[in-house]
Specification:
By secondary structure, the chain is of the alpha+beta class. It folds into four domains: about 100 residues, no CATH class; about 90 residues; about 180 residues, no CATH class; about 180 residues, no CATH class. Strands 6, 8, 9, 10, 12 and 15 form a six-stranded mixed beta sheet that branches. The protein has a four-stranded antiparallel beta sheet with strand order 20-19-24-26. Strand 21 and strand 22 form a beta hairpin. Helix 5 packs parallel to helix 7.
Length: about 575
């Protein structure tokens, strides 16, 4: 019995006793003097009489006479008696159970257990689920009663405001093994297992892209569940109006640096690259598992509890409030059984059937469309002190040439790169811990008249930053090889070792001079692509004459002709 239920019984006991006493005492119907002993009406007798003419009690004693004749309220007496007796039995049972240690749930009917479960906390609902699971295994819970329990469990699973115990899921699995679970009930149980919440930037411009974070908030499954769900975005609507999402938009239309690299935050090289979704294009994979489940996919697929969603809103929206709704669909087929190969957020093939996509969750987000003249993120105008502090904090910690097996697009194609030979890339490292102001920069290397785009630099939360550092990609490589008779060694990993250091990389490092200018340009578009920035440093920072360390790639540089910069 939960503390709340116990408190309710005690309150009922006290309230019933009060009602009983009140009804027994009765209500006063007049103000006549009354003998306290026999309740005789002394009107016309008192105060002259010395004794009560009815019982002979002395009337001159203190308190022998009281004012008003009272009539008992028998209905109130009966109600008080009923309310008093009702909690006595369960309270007595609680006392006996506490003394003897016996489990009273074994003696309770199914209806009472389900009623208690609907009001119970996490600990109590676990015990009730255990008792009903025991009855199911023993065969004492079957037929209509078992169907009542299944319906209750599915309703409980779908109500995220009420606590869930994995034993409820075990009971559903057992019912399926017994052949009493319908296909509709089984599908409902699967759909209701993951519980998602959505957050992100809700103030946008018409035609812009909304960065959202979908978080796996809870897993309402059985204890041995172990499955992955590849999620895709579908059925995007604004105020009920369907909105088409063009895959890859921003990759073709993004801002490009002189090197030709796309600097759009939603482009392939940006922090949101590959996150546009349409139809069955994947958002990512989540793992749904119980506390006793063994994830067989852990070593093969990167899973996360937070996924990034980038949704483009229509160009023709007028300023004002709107509601964005979208579905998360199972891109791997019904039941999550499909196998899907994803490269840079695009599905290449697999056994999942597009036509069998099933809605896992429907989410909604309130949006406010701002006038395009209103900035979504405020650009800070620095004073002299902030300007100096920012230059000191963001001075490049190192700039170097290195060998990289990855392709410029960031795909892990190490075998192909090994065949083509290593690529020279330029790397610049910045310390981004405890910056004096929030930042959102597009970073460039300027070599003569040409600029090479390094990429975005921000400490704001971007959708790409949701990937856990230890699961960000699947590779770590090292090699030793001969290049034109020179021994070259290199190692690379897809994640950085120091979260306080941001390393930006650009291909074409062999074209760079001994020194370059490092340019940090504030980017309102990048700032708006984060989910948390409300301000960003609004002035360009230039670090002239930064020396490039070429020692790591010296062997390759000495044997490879340098191309002339255009």
């Amino acid at each position: 019995m939960s503390p709340n239920q116990l408190l309710t019984l005690v309150v009922m006991l006290v309230a019933g006793f009060v009602l009983l006493c009140w009804g027994w005492l009765g209500r006063r119907i007049n103000d006549h003097p009354v003998c306290r002993d026999c309740k005789f009406d002394l009107d016309g007798v008192w105060p002259d009489a010395i004794t009560c003419p009815e019982c002979g009690s002395g009337l001159k004693r203190d308190g022998a006479v009281r004012d008003g004749v009272r009539r008992r309220m028998w209905p109130l007496v009966l109600v008080g008696l009923l309310v008093t007796l009702t909690p006595i039995v369960p309270l007595a049972a609680v006392v006996v159970a506490a003394i003897t240690g016996r489990d009273l749930d074994r003696f309770k009917p199914v209806g009472l257990l389900l009623w208690e479960a609907g009001q119970a906390d996490v600990v109590r609902t676990e015990k009730i689920a255990d008792e009903l699971m025991t009855r199911t295994l023993a065969g004492t819970l079957a037929g209509a009663q078992l169907q009542d329990v299944i319906t209750f469990v599915l309703d409980l699973q779908g109500d995220v405001t009420r606590p869930w115990a994995e034993t409820w899921g075990d009971l559903i699995v057992q019912a399926e093994l017994m052949g009493v679970l319908t296909s509709e009930q089984s599908g409902r149980f699967q759909r209701q297992q993951p519980v998602f919440a959505v957050s992100g930037r809700t103030s946008v411009h018409a035609g812009s892209t909304v960065p959202l974070i979908v978080t796996l908030k809870e897993m309402r499954c059985d204890s041995r569940a172990a499955r992955t769900i590849t999620l895709a975005l579908g059925n995007v609507k604004v105020n009920g109006r369907a909105v088409d999402q063009e895959a890859g938009e921003g990759r073709e239309n993004g801002r490009r640096g002189a090197s030709g690299r796309n600097l759009s935050p939603f482009g392939i090289n940006g922090p949101l690259g590959g996150l546009f979704t349409t139809g069955q294009q994947s958002l990512g994979t989540v793992y749904v598992g119980g506390k006793r489940g063994n994830n067989p996919f852990g070593g093969l697929f990167a899973t996360s509890t937070s996924l990034g969603v980038a949704v483009k809103v229509p160009e023709d929206l007028a300023p004002g409030p709107y509601e964005l709704t979208f579905d998360l669909e199972n891109a791997g087929g019904v039941g999550g059984g499909g196998f899907t190969v994803m490269v840079n957020g695009r599905r290449l093939g697999g056994t999942g059937d597009d036509k069998s996509a099933q809605v896992v969750a429907s989410l909604k987000v309130p949006l406010t469309v701002q006038d395009k003249q209103t900035p979504l993120v405020e650009a800070l105008k620095p004073d002299a002190a902030l300007r100096e502090a920012m230059r000191t904090a963001l001075t490049p910690r190192r700039a170097e040439l290195a060998l990289d097996l990855r392709s410029p697009s960031g795909l892990n194609s190490s075998p192909m790169r090994m065949m083509m030979g290593p690529e020279l890339v330029a790397k610049v490292a910045f310390a981004t811990k405890d910056l004096p102001a929030p930042v959102a920069f597009d970073v460039f290397l300027k070599n003569g008249d040409r600029e090479y785009a390094l990429g975005p630099l921000t400490k704001g939360k971007t959708l790409a930053s949701l990937v856990p550092k230890d699961r960000a990609t699947f590779y770590s490589s090292s090699f030793t090889m001969m290049v034109n008779g020179q021994t070259v060694s290199s190692s690379s990993s897809s994640t950085g070792d120091d979260p306080d250091i941001t390393v930006l990389t650009t291909p074409g490092g062999g074209n760079l001079s001994e020194t370059v200018d490092v340019i940090l340009r504030p980017s309102p578009v990048l700032a708006a692509s984060t989910t948390d920035l409300t301000q960003f440093y609004g002035e360009e920072i230039v670090f002239p004459g930064v020396k490039i360390d070429r020692s790591a790639a010296r062997g390759m540089l000495e044997t490879t002709p340098r191309r002339r910069s255009r």
